[in-house]
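Let us practice reading a record.
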Amino acid sequence: MVLIVISVLLSRRWTAPTNTKNKAGQDHRLFRMSPDKSVQDVNNTYSVTHLNLDRVVGQGRYSTVWLGKVKDHQVAVKMFPIHKSNYFYNEKDIYSLPFMQHPSFLTYFGCDEIKRKDGDGRLVLVLSYCPLGNLQEYLRKHTLDLMTFTKMALSISTGLAYLHTEIHKQGKWKPCVTHRDINTRNILVKDDLSCCIADLGLAVKIT
């Protein structure tokens, strides 16, 4: 596993940068949050009517990621079009498993549906935000010293090991989960330069 992580960090098979400009008809000012839902963290429960969208910070095959705010707390708002709902529900189900709280995973705050004035909508996951972006872009701009390299590799490998671990505790069960799409685009860099594993839309529970 450590060799896999090292190969991910050292890989130079980069892809072209994704255009994250807002497309016509997707102006976030058209979005309205559904009432009576909440975004939660350890200490607070916020109504999603307080969730404000700022700008697009990422674009993937199945979703668009916005920077958002709940009061003064920055969050990542991952939006799936309705026709990609299977990826939304799969990722939501994985994050909702028991014992999925780990330093190498994003914090999952909740989910909702956003409706637009034109009747279209988006399925939304609200997650913790990593301002340094994904590992692919970080490696393009920075050369790692040995200490940072080791810290990143350790956080990725421990996260993968935990994801793959079946846990039975306190009458609850977390199955082994395989990510199935691990690459530098799906690994995010945290403020302390450790990494966390993201994008669980293709993940599968092994039972």
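A brief commentary: The first strand starts at residue 31 and ends at 33.
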